[in-house]
């Protein structure tokens, strides 16, 4: 059981991350300073640095939160009773998240920083590798149970599915009027037809 001190520390950590994300959305990751994050969080630099010693450490925490969220998705997907239905729900959740302008902005800011900062790039490359490995494992398991086409290249399928989710974020930046949730029904039909066995219904 967590101690009271640990719970308080977790709340403060989450408060700092929320403040940092607000700064990144408003000013961009590259321009936002630790001083601005302190001001947004209402904390002194000395107090904030007890939790995060740099912007990279904050980004690492954001990446870890994303990794945990992805792990939850794939835990539900692996050995799901209806793989294609569960996959559709997972991709639908990704599209719904991408339709949030704040999520879109922070995702693009982090991607831009990763192109400049090797340390940030390494963090997200690791997340990407774990996501792909989990998806490939779930695809192979579904194929072994006859739910999807076993002749597919599962590495390629995983890459395509991840690209669909990531691409939705890019489309939002190019077409702000687009609401990706409206694409969900068509996306689910396409994914089902693409993955199901040749003699499937």
From TrEMBL:
Name the domain of life this protein comes from.
Bacteria
The transmembrane residues are none
Q: Identify the SUPFAM superfamilies for this entry.
A: Homeodomain-like, Tetracyclin repressor-like, C-terminal domain
Which GO molecular-function terms appear in the entry? DNA-binding transcription factor activity; transcription cis-regulatory region binding
Keywords (alphabetical) are: DNA-binding, Repressor, Transcription, Transcription regulation
Q: Which residues bind DNA?
A: 33-52
The answer to whether the entry has keyword ATP-binding is: no
The HTH tetR-type domain, residue ranges: 10-70
InterPro entries found in the cross-reference section? BetI_C, Homeodomain-like_sf, HTH-type_TetR-like_transc_reg, HTH_TetR, Tet_transcr_reg_TetR-rel_C_sf
What is the name listed in the Swiss-Prot or TrEMBL entry for this protein? TetR family transcriptional regulator
């Amino acid at each position: 059981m967590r101690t009271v001190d640990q719970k308080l520390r977790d709340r403060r950590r989450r408060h700092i991350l929320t403040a940092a994300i607000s700064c990144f959305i408003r000013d961009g990751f590259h321009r936002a300073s630790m001083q601005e994050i302190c001001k947004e969080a209402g904390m002194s630099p000395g107090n904030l640095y007890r939790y995060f010693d740099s912007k990279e450490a904050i980004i690492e925490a954001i990446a870890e939160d994303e990794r945990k969220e992805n792990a939850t998705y794939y835990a539900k997907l692996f050995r799901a009773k209806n793989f294609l239905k569960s996959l559709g729900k997972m991709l639908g959740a990704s599209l719904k998240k991408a339709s949030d302008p704040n999520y879109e902005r922070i995702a693009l800011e982090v991607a831009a920083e990763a192109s400049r900062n090797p340390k940030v790039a390494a963090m997200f490359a690791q997340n990407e590798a774990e996501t792909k490995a989990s998806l490939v494992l779930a695809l192979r398991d579904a194929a072994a149970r006859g739910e999807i086409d076993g002749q597919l290249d599962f590495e390629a399928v995983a890459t395509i599915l991840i690209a669909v989710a990531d691409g939705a974020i890019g489309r939002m930046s190019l077409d702000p009027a687009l609401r990706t949730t409206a694409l969900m029904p068509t996306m689910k039909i396409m994914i089902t037809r693409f993955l199901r066995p040749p003699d499937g219904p």
